[in-house]
Structures are given as C-alpha cells and as structure tokens.
C-alpha cells in the first residue's frame, strides 16, 4: 500500500456565539476533487518539513506568505483510496489579513457542524472541521 503524505493549511477564526469559520478555496484542476471547497495543500516533497509543505502550498495556491512559526500541528487524517492512502498532515493557522478577498469562509455551527457542506468538501475534511470545532468549544474535554 502506497502512503502519500500531504500537508494542509487550515486558516480559521472564531466568531461570537460559538461559531467557527474555516477558509477554503475551489479546486480548479480536473479529477475527483474538481470544484470542491478545500484547504490549501498538496504533497510533501522528499526531505521537506511538513509545515513547510503547508507554507509552500499556500504560497503556490493562494499567493500569500505565511510564517511557518504560526502553524500548529493539529493531527494526521487518512484518506484511503483504492490504490493509495493519503496522509493529511493538518496545520492550523490564524486568519491572515492577506486572505481578504480570496477564497471563502465556511461557517461552522452547532449542531450540524460540517454537515451542510456534504458534497462540497472532500470527505476527510468533515472529520477535520468537526474535530477542530469540538477542540475549540467543548468544555467537557478540559
Ligand atoms: N489540497 C487539499 N487536498 C486535500 C484536501 N482534503 C483531501 O482529502 N485532500 C486530498 C486530495 C488529494 O488526494 C491530496 C492532495 O494532493 P494534491 O493533488 O492537491 O497535491 P499536489 O498539489 O502536490 O498535487 P499536484 O498538483 O502535483 O498533482 O489530498 C484538502 O482540503 N486540500
């Protein structure tokens, strides 16, 4: 089984009323993810620090510079495909002023969390978004 490490940059912001917003962009290329709203990201190059992969993809895809020191490792999520398993290394980044006018913010609220975006986002992203929401707002875990 082939393992393919990918780095994702998840820009997020918290709004009053336990609202989370996550920043996404439309995937333009052909293939199974065409037209979906996704986080900037892509394959980690050999020898590359995962967070640097996230920063590089943000530069390439969004056209903005972000400081790798701002990236916080959230976890690794798997996307099992028939011929390979994608390992999504997710890094959290705070909202950046340079994002203004680019992409779109998805509003995540209780009780549905990411469910309203079914079919609009890659399937592994549901777990990522829902986990982030719970980590930010579930007091029970503290
Ligand atoms: N960019 C991105 N990829 C995601 C997300 N969720 C998710 O499952 N994926 C999957 C889709 C792809 O199988 C893989 C990313 O690979 P990619 O094809 O974008 O990587 P890349 O930019 O380096 O590829 P390429 O242009 O060189 O072909 O991760 C997401 O939110 N953003």
UniProtKB/TrEMBL annotation:
UniProt KW keywords: DNA damage, DNA repair, DNA replication, Hydrolase, Magnesium, Metal-binding, Mutator protein
Domain of life: Bacteria
SUPFAM superfamilies xrefs: Nudix
GO molecular function terms listed in the Swiss-Prot or TrEMBL record: 8-oxo-7,8-dihydrodeoxyguanosine triphosphate pyrophosphatase activity; 8-oxo-7,8-dihydroguanosine triphosphate pyrophosphatase activity; 8-oxo-dGDP phosphatase activity; 8-oxo-GDP phosphatase activity; metal ion binding
One GO-annotated biological process of the protein: DNA repair
Required cofactor names: Mg(2+)
Keyword Hydrolase: yes
CDD domains: NUDIX_Hydrolase
Top enzyme category: hydrolase
Pfam families (UniProt xref): NUDIX (PF00293)
EC number annotated for this UniProt entry: 3.6.1.55
Catalytic activity: 8-oxo-GTP + H2O = 8-oxo-GMP + diphosphate + H(+); 8-oxo-dGTP + H2O = 8-oxo-dGMP + diphosphate + H(+)
Nudix hydrolase domain ranges (all copies): 1-127
UniProt record similarity statement: Belongs to the Nudix hydrolase family.
Protein name: 8-oxo-dGTP diphosphatase
Organism: Peredibacter starrii
